[in-house]
Amino acid sequence: MKKFIYQNSLSIVFFLLFVGAMIGQIVFGFHEYNNELIDKGAQAVQLSEYFESGHFLEATFENWESEFLQMGLFVWLTIFLKQKGSSESKGFGTDEEVDREPSATRKAAPWPVKKGGFWLLLYQNSLTISLMLLFVVSFFLHLYGSFKDENLFNTLSGKPKVDILEYLGASKFWFESFQNWQSEFVSVFAIVVLSIYLRQKGSSQSKPVDAPHDETGE
After folding, report:
1. Residues 65/135, Cβ–Cβ less than 8 Å
2. What is the pLDDT along the chain (218 residues), one digit of tens a residue?
3. Cβ neighbours, 10 Å, residue 59
4. DSSP letter string, 161-182
5. Confidence (pTM)
6. Quick one: which of 213, 208, 212, 180 has its CA closest to 194?
7. 3-state secondary structure the chain
8. CA distances from 42 to 17, 61, 63 (A)
9. Cα 115 versus chain centre, distance
């Protein structure tokens, strides 16, 4: 068990942070949602009902959507684009280990590499594909949750309901998306640029402390 925790400590810590933050979101989101319902003259809901609400779906997947979009684009764009001096970029004028052609004879190579053909093509792009699929799923769950929440409060306010295609073109939905997308893009910009000049000893995301500013890559 100790060995497992040591070898997986980064993912374990971030998963526990996720769980803690998710619990916080649920607790405070549940109370906020009920406050909004009461303000509109409706009855408060139980926690089990809250998980089915548009409020919960929209709040959750609006954020997941932007995270997966950011990570998917970052993984894909770093194939082609570079930033001199950044630890987040591949270097210039040298062959990178990550660019070499996969070999089926390599010891313990994953089975798609040994299989070759379509499976190898799919596998060698699987990280970007998976992240972008998670983005698409989160995007539509955000859309559904936001649409459901909008129609609930339209009904409580005596306004007509909208259909989902009409809501897809509404400014509210795209405001929710872009306010999250821009925060993700600026965070990537920050780590790419700040890692040129700033260091964190011991971090895999930083260059060595004594590395010159124009040295590119980790």
Report:
1. yes
2. 899 999 999 999 999 999 999 999 999 999 999 999 999 999 999 999 999 999 999 999 999 999 999 999 999 999 999 999 999 998 888 778 888 888 888 888 999 999 899 999 999 999 999 999 999 999 999 999 999 999 999 999 999 999 999 999 999 999 999 999 999 999 999 999 999 999 999 998 998 898 999 989 87
3. 20
4. P--HHHHHT-HHHHHHHHHHHH
5. 0.91
6. 213
7. CHHHHHHCHHHHHHHHHHHHHHHHHHHHHHHHHHHHHHHCCCCCCCHHHHCCCHHHHHHHHHHHHHHHHHHHHHHHHHHHCCCCCCCCCCCCCCCCHHHCCCCCCCCCCCHHHHHCHHHHHHHCCHHHHHHHHHHHHHHHHHHHHHHHHHHHHHHHCCCCCCCHHHHHCCHHHHHHHHHHHHHHHHHHHHHHHHHHHCCCCCCCCCCCCCCCCCCCCC
8. 34, 25, 27
9. 30
Helix (H, G, I), strand (E, B) or coil at 32: helix
Nearest to 180 by CA among 61, 76, 57: 61
Look-up of token digits 């972008």: 132
Q: CA–CA separation, 204 vs 188, rounded Å?
A: 16
Neighbour-count burial for 119-145, b at 16+ CB within 10 Å, e otherwise:
ebeebeeeebeebbebbeebbebbbbb
* Distance (Å, whole) CA 141 – CA 58: 7
Q: In this structure, are residues 55 and 45 in contact, taking their beta carbons and an 8 Å threshold?
A: no
